[in-house]
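User: I've been trying to design a sequence by hand for this structure and keep getting stuck. Would you show me what you'd pick, starting by listing the structure so we're on the same page?

Assistant: Good idea, let's start from the same input. This is the structure you sent:
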């Protein structure tokens, strides 16, 4: 089933031997369009420390109870490498992280989820010039915060139209299937979907997502439908709900 990352933020997380906190954010890869980590606020348990959980550790998602199971013990999570607050994740950190759990690093495996071939405008490497949410040297430049991208303007081929309000993810594979877009005042607050394949590039300096669609193509899209090129709308482009 597809879930909006914005709706999942705040979900409680339950390890095999007790609760561990709640979801604060998601880090996703903006080339493969797959969630790589949930960012967990551990609250009073670890004195507010943030930890990362990879999808391979996720268990049952209980939407009604707003809870996500985690197939790890509290001790395993407590002993995991700490992350630096407000700093992107480095490849060196990921190697240490996966080594802690005895997992193969994902970039050495096959079957990267959701590949689209989208390109990315790289932010400047000088830390003093780096925009909020942008990478530093030695950081994985394609690992981004979902929360940071929410609010980015959508730049169609002929101008700006709306902004990112979330991401629809498959709660089994954790691949991102669509960007959720609030398409502007003319749409009365309605949301439409844009497939990752339509994303040309993301500019973190400009806080914009550039898409291979026209404003008219986005404008005529029905609510909760995928925007597509060409005339009219096609219900076959909609996502299944289960």
């Amino acid at each position: 089933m597809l879930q909006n990352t914005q709706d999942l933020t705040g979900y409680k997380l339950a390890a095999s031997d007790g609760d561990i906190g709640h979801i604060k954010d998601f880090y996703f890869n903006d080339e493969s369009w797959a969630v790589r980590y949930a960012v967990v606020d551990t609250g009073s348990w670890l004195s507010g420390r943030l930890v990362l959980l990879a999808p391979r550790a996720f268990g049952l998602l209980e939407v009604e109870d707003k809870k996500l199971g985690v197939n790890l013990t509290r001790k395993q999570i407590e002993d995991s490498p700490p992350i630096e607050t407000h700093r992107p994740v480095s490849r060196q950190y990921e190697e240490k992280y996966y080594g802690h759990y005895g997992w193969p690093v994902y970039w050495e495996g096959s079957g990267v989820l959701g590949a689209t071939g989208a390109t990315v405008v790289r932010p400047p490497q000088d830390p003093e010039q780096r925009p909020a949410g942008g990478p530093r040297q030695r950081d994985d430049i394609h690992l981004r915060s979902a929360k940071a991208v929410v609010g980015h303007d959508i730049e169609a081929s002929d101008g700006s139209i709306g902004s990112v309000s979330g991401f629809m993810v498959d709660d089994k594979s954790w691949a991102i299937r669509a960007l959720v877009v609030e398409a502007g005042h003319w749409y009365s607050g309605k949301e439409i979907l844009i497939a990752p394949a339509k994303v040309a590039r993301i500019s973190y300096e400009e806080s914009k997502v550039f898409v291979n669609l026209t404003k008219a193509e986005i404008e005529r899209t029905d609510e909760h439908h995928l925007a597509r090129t060409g005339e009219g709308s096609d219900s076959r482009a909609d996502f299944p709900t289960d």
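That's my pick for every position. To get oriented when you compare it with your attempt: The first helix runs from residue 5 to 8. The two ends are 4 Å apart (CA to CA).
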